Amino acid sequence: MALPDPSPSPAGAPPPDAHRVRPGWAPFLEVGRRVVLRYAIDRSSTPHGESMTDALGTILGVDDAAVRVMTRRGEVSVPRALVIAAKEVPPPPRRPERVAP
């Protein structure tokens, strides 16, 4: 069995496996945090052939297999292996109260 070449990539390019999930890659993924997750989806199951979608909401649970997010449309379980990007986001903006005429 051959071991991978530990030498750096040419011209400072990231190593070929840089896209793979790494432990600790998103330490802010904690229950109660508001996040947006971009993740891969099956193109054949979407009406326009999209390959990615987003889940915006509050994290309900995190484990090695998935991140559960409560969105406005309900709970979404996103497999960690399909997450392309993750970002913590601020709370939604508050709408001004309506004043009765």
TrEMBL record:
Amino acid composition bias (Pro residues), ranges on this chain: 1-16
Family annotation (Pfam families): SH3_Rv0428c
Domain Histone acetyltransferase Rv0428c-like SH3: from-to ranges: 30-87
InterPro entries for this protein: SH3_Rv0428c
Region ranges (Disordered): 1-22
Name recorded for this polypeptide: Histone acetyltransferase Rv0428c-like SH3 domain-containing protein
Lineage: Bacteria, Bacillati, Actinomycetota, Actinomycetes, Micrococcales
